[in-house]
Amino acid sequence: xxxxxxxxxxxxxxxxxxxxxxxxxxxxxxxxxxxxxxxxxxxxxxxxxxxxxxxxxxxxxxxxxxxxxxxxxxxxxxxxxxxxxxxxxxxxxxxxxxxxxxxxxxxxxxxxxxxxxxxxxxxxxxxxxxxxxxxxxxxxxxxxxxxxxxxxxxxxxxxxxxxxxxxxxxxxxxxxxxxxxxxxxxxxxxxxxxxxxxxxxxxxxxxxxxxxxxxxxxxxxxxxxxxxxxxxxxxxxxxxxxxxxxxxxxxxxxxxxxxxxxxxxxxxxxxxxxxxxxxxxxxxxxxxxxxxxxxxxxxxxxxxxxxxxxxxxxxxxx
Length: 318
Fold this sequence. Notes:
Layout: E1 13-17, H1 24-32, E2 37-39, H2 51-61, E3 65-68, H3 76-81, H4 83-103, E4 108-114, H5 141-161, E5 165-170, E6 172-174, H6 187-200, E7 205-209, E8 215-216, E9 218-220, H7 221-234, E10 241-243, E11 249-250, H8 251-262, E12 267-271, H9 286-292, H10 300-317
Parallel strand pairs: 1-2, 1-3, 3-4, 4-5, 5-10, 6-9, 7-12
Antiparallel strand pairs: 8-11
C-alpha cells in the first residue's frame, strides 16, 4: 500500500465504527501500524441506533477522527426481505454518529457510502454529478437512499457549522474475511461458497440468480482500505468521491471465472425469475486519483484467486 502520511495519524484517537467487520479487518491493522489509537465499538456494548449509547461512546473515547463504516447491508436476497430494518438501522446510526461527531468537536468525519445510491439507470461510467439524476434500483433502494442521506447530512453540517465531513462512494468489495453466509452475502462470496461446496459434494449443477447480463464493478478490500486512508489524509471537500477500479464485468463472465478458479465443471443453470438488480455498475474513478492520489492496484483475477484460497483455508481450519 501507499506510504501513510508522516505525523497525520500519530497518537490520534480514531473511532472506526464497523471496524470489526469485513473492511475493518483490513483497515484497522493499517491504521494501527501508523501510530494511531484505534477504537472499534462492538454492538454488544454500543447500539449505534440509540442516542444514549452514541453519547456514551464519544464521552468514553474522545475521538478526533471518525471513520463511519457501520452498516446494515447485504445481497439482493437480504435487501428484498428486510428493506424496512435496513433503512431504519442505517438512518439511525448515520444520523446519530454525524450529530455526535459535530457536538463533540471531532476534527474529521469520513462517511462510507455505496454505489447503491446511484440511480438505477445511470450512464456508465457513473460520475459523482449523476448521483441525483433518478431513483436507485428498487431491490436496494432502501439501503442506497439511507446512505445518500448521510451525504446530505454531512454537506448540511458543513454548510451551517463548518463540519469537516467527507463522503466516499464504494463499489462492492471482495476479499479475505468477506461474509460467506448465503442468506446475507454479496455475489462473489456467495458464488465462491456455492461452487466449492458443489465440487466437494460432486454436484453436477449450480443455480444462479438472474440472466447474467447485468454488469458489476468490484474492489479488492485492501485497495478499499487504502482509498479510505488516503481520502482521510488528503481530502477535505463536500463533494462525494467514487472509490473503485473503473473495471466492470458481466455476471455471466464472473460466474464462469469463479467456476474455473474453484474447479467446478458442471452445468450452470440461470434462474431468470430472480432479479438481476441494477443493469450496469461501473464508476468514473478519476476524482479519487486527482483529489487524493488513489488508484486500485489489485487486478481482478488475482484478487479472486486470493479470495478463493483464503476461503478454502478458512473452511479447512473450522
